[in-house]
Amino acid sequence: MPSKKYKRVMLKISGEALGDESGHDINTDALNKIAKEMVRLNQEGIQLVVVNGAGNIWRYRDQKESGIERTTSDYMGMMATIMNSVALQSAVEKLGVHCRVATALDLPQIAEPYIRRRVMRHLEKDRIVICSGGTGNPYFTTDTAAALRAVELNCDVILKATNVDGIYTEDPHKNPSAKRYDQLSYDEAIEKNLQVMDQTAFSLCRDSQMKIVVFDMSKKDAILKAAKGEKIGTLVS
Fold first, then answer.
1. Structural domain tally of the chain?
2. pTM given for the model
3. Distance CA 25, CA 167 (A)
4. Residue 39 near residue 11, CB atoms below 8 Å
5. Whole domain around residue 60: which residue ranges?
6. pLDDT tens for residues 195-230?
7. Partner of 119 at 20 to 30 A CA spacing, among 34, 85, 178, 180?
8. Which of 69, 200, 86 is nearest to 133 (CA)?
9. CB atoms within 10 A of CB 83
10. Distance from the Cα of residue 149 to its chain's centroid
11. What is the DSSP pairing of strand 112-113 with strand 128-132?
């Protein structure tokens, strides 16, 4: 097996990945599967930071008809990411690996505050860190939070885990003739409006030269292969 390419990686997973078949609630089987893959990276000596979404519980774009004001709805989504994060933390620690949740919102009863130097120290001690609560501000997605934390924490790459094996010209679920890119530049991804990550996240990665690998997390050993720099999915650089 090839030696690992990356020392410290940012794993971005959606809230739906933690849900049931319809992408809702928190599914124990999905939770445990992802936790096992996170632990494998840790055992390989790869430092791991995770940002998870909350689409399985609450997300503004899915709840526009609720009548709840946008800023309030976004804060609800941030709190929902923390629910997912502490569930994931529990699943990881059941496997015997130390894991910390560092949140942008102040919830000291269940998670520690996000303080960059403290998180860096956790990583140096080989603990997995889940950065939760988005950026702590409304109007920013968890993609942007992942890009921001990856840059702040000196990660080598963002591993964007999806249900598609890379970036396509169009949604391959809707158009089977869509073509997959093996590699893209940041500018191409932005200009073509390839909506795998939002434009703010892409722009931040471009400005910071942060690599992004978009891949299908359902494939066997996909997260580990991506973290080891094996050819998988689409590379944006």
1. 1
2. 0.94
3. 27
4. no
5. 8-236
6. 778 889 989 999 999 999 999 999 889 999 999 999
7. 34
8. 86
9. 19
10. 10
11. unpaired
